[in-house]
Amino acid sequence: MFPSRLDSALAYDIAKAMMDGFNRHYRLFRTESARAKHRFETCDWHGQQRAQRERIEFYGLRVKECVMRLEKEFRAGEQAMDVWQQVKLHYIGLLVDHHQPELAETFFNSVTTKILHRTHFHNNFIFVRPAVSTEYIENEEPAARPTYRAYYPSRETLHETLIRIVEHFELQGDFEDLTRDTGYVLAALRQQLGDAKLRANFQIQVLSSLFFRNKGAYVVGKVINGFIELPFALPILHRPSGPLIIDAVLFGENDLQMLFSFARAYFMVDMEVPSAYVQFLRSMMPRKPRAEIYNALGLAKQGKTLFYRDFLAHLRHSSDQFRIAPGIKGMVMLVFDLPSFPFVFKLIKDYYPPQKDTSREQIKGKYLLVKQHDRVGRMADTLEYSEVAFPRERFSDELIAEIQKFAPSQLEISDRDGDGQTEVIIKHLYIERRMIPLNLYLQEAFDMGLDQPRARQQVERCVIEYGRAIKDLVAANIFPGDMLWKNFGITRHGKVVFYDYDEIEYLTDCHFRRVPEPRTEEEELSGEIWYRVGPRDVFPETFGPFLLGHPLVREVFMQHHAELLDASYWQAQQQRIQAGHLHDVFPYERHRRFPPREAVAS
User: Fold this and answer.
1) Where in the cell does this protein reside (predicted)?
2) Quick check: is 381 catalytic?
3) Considering 337, 374, 381, 472, which one is annotated as catalytic?
4) What's this model's pTM, rounded to 2 decimal places?
């Protein structure tokens, strides 16, 4: 029961200190995001990557700072529960006119659970549901930018309006030919509109901040005409010689879904009211969960909070059981899923076979590497949780037995809350978007029969995309380690994404070699490896027997990606990365680029 009176001055002081901690966090987060514009203007690509990586650490550091202050100044962990009840109510009062109330609630949860040492998520003293609405928040300060700007062109003024939209962002640097590039955009837009009548509400709405990632800056908005809303994005890049160009135009929900994919690095965006940005983006991508949009904006902790709320709601409105996930079982990770829920749950096993020379901490380090790295659309983002409680009746006995066998240290079955409900508590797990494992997707085509054109096309697309995925990872300085088909999945957009991270390495840390020529007849006929192999030695020519057993798979692979079996290809990529070159990996197909185009500034 919450108190009927707020009579603890200490409770208010604790709440105010927590709010100060959050405000400091978001001020630093926003400042770093805003600096992305200068890094883009000066082509500081390595600085952009470094800032994206370091910004991920901001949240944990600020939570730790706040906890230390509360313990030092208020001995917060020793306070009675009635004080903590009042702390939450005071905190809610401080949120009423706040511009980031949902983020501040999540920060409160993070700090509170650290201090109260709660062991899982069910807690009366945290925000299980949002207490303050995020609807219609706007910054009313005179100099503040609105969330989005609206433009009202006619057909005759559409071109000059497109120029004005780009110029409003005040990028420091000249465009090579802005009139030409907006002409390309105009032609593409006219093709989308066709001969449709321009209705009374015809307008273009554009978010007021640019979205920065890697070497690109993106204008994001939508065209509204009558009952039609057409999302769009304009990628702005640098030419090698320096000038700016609009490289392409992306239209529609599918293009925007790819741009904001869970397999890409987080954007840098300067936002005073993040919930307003999320609401705008959700209007363009209604099928994309709000949790994933917050993640894409770099607000990963808020993404985790919303994901967990969505998950609890799904549990309440479903009745199927968790099960061992379909596919080949991994040697390091135990994977389970809920058939009705589009995610998989992965926990690290306690025991590994001899060929897996690793440890729990090393595996967690690999997943952290992926979180901090540029995922170039080819590595799935993961949500990491600790002490997660599930209803026992939703777990199949077979799954419980599997966890008890392979990861007993990660499992507790108890009524920890004392409410009569037995729960399965997983100590540590990762959650990823569910994809169709590539080996199963290939097998579906084989089962269909390769005499069927559809089956043959499925195999060809699958193999071509698989090779592209590996090349994109190479461009990002990532060697997948285990390149078997089962470690890759296919998304609903047909993209191949890598999701098994326990063997990944930086490409530049590997030693790519050709298999030595045998010196004797005994060596040539030996069934064992007769040459010395170092711990990070890789022999690309040996990939073939493991990957290309099927004749059609081999034919397509050799036609499109034969260089992946040649050590010199990998060595050349290493040399480019070591020379400081950052490859261009676009979130859209090359044929979408306006002609003529060459690589952007390196």
Assistant:
1) Cytoplasm
2) yes
3) 381
4) 0.93
